[in-house]
Design goal:
With 515 residues, the protein is of the alpha/beta class. The protein contains 17 helices and 22 strands. Helices cover 33% and strands 26% of the residues. The strands form five sheets. The protein has a six-stranded mixed sheet, with helices on both faces. Strands 18-19-20-15-21-22 form a six-stranded mixed sheet, sandwiched between helices. It is globular and about 70 Å long.
Length: 515
């Protein structure tokens, strides 16, 4: 193995009953390199990482891999950590009730005379945080930190063990843009120290911002390894999905019909009395996609959740649905009227993960399949669920499959299918492609266009500006709960929209906007 290589995998093959998850995969990692691993959900990324990190122990796979010229025969994660390989998963392994220092040194606390040396632990933790330029108090309880800072603590915890190979699995999925910038800066710094990183994400902007090389997996096979500086998003996407993508955001113009939903000067307060939406008005008609953009905390989700009766108190304004006053007390009331919402947090609000796909699909429309005797018509339920699963191309063995076992993209299809079974006229889609791969995103975009052509009215919230511009007929930019600007499709540009996203807050800060 080359002196420059710290890890090399050759011919890794891993099978499960009826499925070959990896087929002759080869991969290597160089010292001081960020090597991104890309592929659609189900491509084999997670299986490869579990193999490299000892979760799938030696003997359960074919092929071999080497760490620093020595063949790795791990029997568990502890063996991987012993040779300096650490994995940071999207679900962080931190204890909220313990301090930053206690988490960093958990299981490896410095001792003196048989007791934990608390002074040394906090002093060493402070020095370690300072070494990586992280401004976090080591005495702060981890539960008080935002997700971004928790992610940094997790990385410091791994590096404290003198790891020289770091695997980051979807590290920015729940981070704000500012937190992403901080994390990427830290990765560049640890890369400069000679630490090698395997980086896994669906966000191709990050891939090209941070990577030296990119390896694409598809259907459990190594498709290509590319030099990031000589490649492009289009090339990576082509390798991921196995075909040319002529238009990542296929826009369809539909006939605009009657106005279905109108909000007039709506202001919303949180349960704590904080004003989160300020005097917002909008309309959306049949055959139209209305986009809402803005920076984090702009009030986009809060506005939509208030309209469906799921959040806060409407302190002023009114909403009209099909020409009538509309103020549902619960989301179920909104669904009964013909308005449904796909929430941004599918795992927390959209799904019962340990139940079956069929259970989740039926959850919001049980009244439609319940007979007069109060019992669910199982034949009708199965027929409806099979039809929507086929329409959305849900990849799962059956309707009885537990939803938590599906990929993120297929979980999202279940959430959307559940909404469509309510037969709504207006559909709210809040970050509908968050955490799903490029192929699944394209399917969501095509579905949005199909619903639009059917005369549905669609309101979409997205933090991805190209996505928002690609799908929308009109866009309203919010800033700190207020409207910064409204734009027709011919006026879209990232610069104009971004300027509108900050204009309301600038006006308020300068005293031009008054409560």
């Amino acid at each position: 193995m080359s002196l420059d290589l710290v890890l090399k995998a050759e011919g890794i093959t891993k099978s499960f009953p009826g499925v070959k998850a990896l087929a002759d995969v080869s991969f290597d990692l160089r010292r001081g390199e960020v090597h991104s691993l890309c592929g659609e959900n189900g491509a084999g990324k997670s299986t490869l990482i579990k193999t490299l990190s000892g979760i799938w122990n030696f003997g359960t796979y074919e092929g071999s891999f080497f760490v620093d010229d020595t063949e790795a025969r791990f029997s568990g994660i502890a063996d991987a950590e012993t040779v300096g390989l650490a994995v940071i998963y999207q679900e962080l392994a931190l204890v909220d009730e313990m301090t930053v220092a206690e988490n960093i040194y958990l299981g490896h606390e410095p001792t003196r005379f048989g007791f934990v040396d608390w002074d040394k632990m906090y002093k060493d933790a402070a020095a370690l945080l300072d070494h990586f330029g992280i401004d976090i108090d080591p005495a702060e309880r981890v539960g008080n930190l935002g997700v971004g800072k928790q992610q940094l603590v997790e990385i410091v915890k791994a590096l404290k063990k003198e790891s020289h190979i770091l695997i980051l699995d979807e590290p920015t999925a729940a981070l704000t843009e500012r937190e992403v910038d901080i994390l990427l800066k830290m990765i560049r710094e640890i890369k400069a120290r000679g630490i090698a990183c395997i980086y896994i994400t669906h966000k191709l902007d990050e891939v090209f911002a941070i990577s030296d090389r990119i390896t694409v997996l598809r259907d459990g096979k190594t498709i290509a390894t590319l030099q990031a500086s000589e490649s492009s998003k289009a090339e990576v996407i082509r390798h991921m999905v196995g075909r040319e993508i002529d238009d990542l955001f296929p826009y369809v113009k539909a006939d605009r019909g009657e106005c279905l939903l109108e909000a007039r000067n709506v202001s919303v307060e949180s349960d704590e009395g904080q004003k989160v939406v300020r005097d917002v008005s909008f309309q959306v008609a049949r055959g139209e996609v209305l986009g809402f953009g803005g920076l984090m905390g702009a009030g986009r989700s809060e506005l939509l959740m208030n309209v469906i009766g799921a959040f806060g108190k409407r302190s002023s304004g009114e909403v009209m649905f099909k020409g009538e006053a509309f103020a549902p007390r619960t989301p179920q009331s909104a669904i009964e009227k013909g308005l449904v919402m796909v929430t941004e947090d599918r795992k927390r609000y959209g799904l019962v993960l340990e139940q079956s796909n069929g259970f989740n699909l039926s959850l919001s429309s049980l009244t439609e399949i319940t007979a007069s005797n109060g019992l669910v018509d199982v034949n009708q339920e199965v027929s409806r669920n099979e039809a929507i699963a086929k329409q959305l191309q849900v990849k799962a063995p059956s309707l009885e499959t537990v939803t938590s076992t599906l990929s993120g993209g297929n979980q999202q299809k279940i959430v959307i299918g559940k909404a469509l079974l309510c037969e709504p006229d207006v559909i709210f889609l809040d970050e509908p492609t968050r955490g799903i791969d490029v192929g699944a995103k394209l399917e969501v975009y095509e579905l949005v266009n199909a619903l639009k052509s059917q005369g549905k009215a669609i309101v979409i919230v997205s933090s991805e500006m190209p996505e928002l511009m690609g799908l929308s007929d009109r866009i309203i930019m919010l800033s700190e709960g207020a409207v910064g600007g409204e734009f027709d499709r011919e006026d879209f540009s990232q610069e104009t929209l971004l300027a509108a996203a900050i204009s309301a807050s600038e006006n308020r800060n300068s005293g031009e906007t008054h409560e």
